[in-house]
């Protein structure tokens, strides 16, 4: 099956740049996949997503979005993608519905009509469905200036989905939102993704948002540094998942771990045990020796990201 996003040897050289902002980046994203694209400021992240969404031209390489070339078939690309930019782009003096009506007319989905009542039934039905999903149905005909930050973000999501895009680009979608609004927003995004089998392409500085991604691509200095599942990346950059155990009978605890062929080392009076499952529950359930200490460390994507940035600054390659 043709990937929804295919990037091959993408390169972008700005006239004033000492080196390419994007230098030979390649990756593919499948239909329905949740793909996170991460990197520090100046790594080429924003340049790449700008090229993928047709707002910036490339210097070299090939970029195909939903089967269309980003430069030769830009209008077809735009009809197949929804974009939520880092900075909101709503007209605060219009109602939520008026913002949407203007948006769909610009995209050529529906011809503009001066009143909601004059819009076709298909438009009204889509608005009804999406406003219920994102939770702003009661506020559709209220001016956006009275909306909270979370409501404005939900409106932007709704607006970006009106033309049934196959790919949703999210550029820092939860920036400026409190923790509750961020969680609510992601609940809606995952719901929409499953219902519409939509591909999600995310850039974010909130690394915990990328933990649920199918795959993660991290770039530094314009190049792909590492690409894989969150677990693969964490393992490569941070090593194994571990826990510290101490038992009432240390000898008995060691015997049990040996019988399970568990990997462990002694560390400051405790046993540092490696486990490979998502959680240590399977290993712990087989222990009978009473424990006096249990500390579990599961590496996070944020820790892996910081390790990558640190190595990049020191000039260490993976």
How would you describe this protein?
- Helix 4 crosses helix 5 (149-161) and helix 7 (230-238) packs across helix 10 (301-313).
- The protein has two domains: 5-233, 3-Layer(aba) Sandwich (Rossmann fold), CATH 3.40.50; 240-298, Alpha-Beta Plaits (2-Layer Sandwich), CATH 3.30.70.
- It is built from ten helices and 14 strands.
- Strand 7, helix 6 and strand 8 (199-203) form a beta-alpha-beta unit.
- The strands form three sheets. Strands 6-7-8-3-9-10 form a six-stranded mixed β-sheet, sandwiched between helices. A four-stranded antiparallel β-sheet has the order 2-1-4-5. A four-stranded antiparallel β-sheet has the order 12-13-11-14.
- The protein has 318 residues and is an alpha/beta fold.
- It is 33% helix and 25% strand.
- It has helices spanning 45-52, 74-79, 96-106, 121-134, 149-161, 179-196, 230-238, 250-259, 281-284, 301-313; strands at residues 5-12, 22-29, 34-38, 60-65, 68-69, 81-84, 167-171, 199-203, 215-220, 223-228, 241-247, 263-267, 270-275, 291-297.
Helices and strands in order:
Elements: E1 5-12, E2 22-29, E3 34-38, H1 45-52, E4 60-65, E5 68-69, H2 74-79, E6 81-84, H3 96-106, H4 121-134, H5 149-161, E7 167-171, H6 179-196, E8 199-203, E9 215-220, E10 223-228, H7 230-238, E11 241-247, H8 250-259, E12 263-267, E13 270-275, H9 281-284, E14 291-297, H10 301-313
Parallel strand pairs: 3-8, 3-9, 6-7, 7-8
Antiparallel strand pairs: 1-2, 1-4, 4-5, 9-10, 11-13, 11-14, 12-13
Helix pairs in contact: 4-5, 5-6, 7-10
């Amino acid at each position: 099956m043709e990937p929804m996003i295919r990037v091959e040897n993408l390169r972008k050289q700005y006239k004033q740049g000492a080196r390419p902002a994007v230098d030979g980046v390649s990756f593919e994203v499948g239909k329905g996949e949740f793909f996170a694209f991460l990197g520090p400021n100046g790594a080429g992240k924003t340049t790449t997503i700008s090229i993928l969404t047709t707002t910036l031209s490339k210097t070299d390489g090939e970029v195909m979005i939903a089967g269309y070339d980003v430069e030769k078939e830009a209008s077809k690309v735009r009809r197949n993608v929804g974009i939520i930019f880092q900075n909101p782009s709503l007209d605060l003096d219009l109602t939520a519905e008026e913002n949407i009506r203007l948006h769909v007319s610009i995209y050529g989905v529906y011809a503009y009509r001066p009143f909601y009542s004059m819009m076709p039934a298909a438009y009204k039905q889509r608005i009804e469905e999406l406003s219920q999903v994102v939770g702003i149905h009661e506020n559709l005909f209220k001016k956006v200036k009275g909306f909270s930050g979370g409501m404005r973000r939900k409106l932007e999501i709704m607006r970006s989905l009106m033309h049934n895009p196959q790919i949703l680009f999210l550029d820092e979608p939860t920036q400026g939102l409190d923790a509750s609004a961020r969680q609510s927003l992601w609940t809606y995004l995952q719901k929409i993704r499953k219902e519409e089998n939509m591909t999600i392409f995310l850039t974010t500085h909130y690394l915990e948002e990328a933990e649920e991604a199918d795959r993660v691509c991290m770039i530094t200095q314009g190049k792909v540094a590492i690409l894989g599942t969150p677990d693969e990346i964490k393992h490569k950059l941070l090593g194994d998942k571990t826990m510290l155990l101490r038992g009432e009978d240390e000898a008995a605890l060691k015997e049990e771990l040996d019988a399970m062929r568990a990997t462990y080392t002694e560390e400051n009076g405790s046993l540092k045990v490696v486990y490979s499952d998502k959680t240590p529950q399977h290993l712990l359930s087989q222990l009978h020796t009473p424990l006096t200490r249990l500390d579990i460390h599961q590496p996070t994507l944020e820790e892996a990201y910081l390790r990558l940035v640190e190595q990049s600054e020191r000039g260490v390659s993976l």
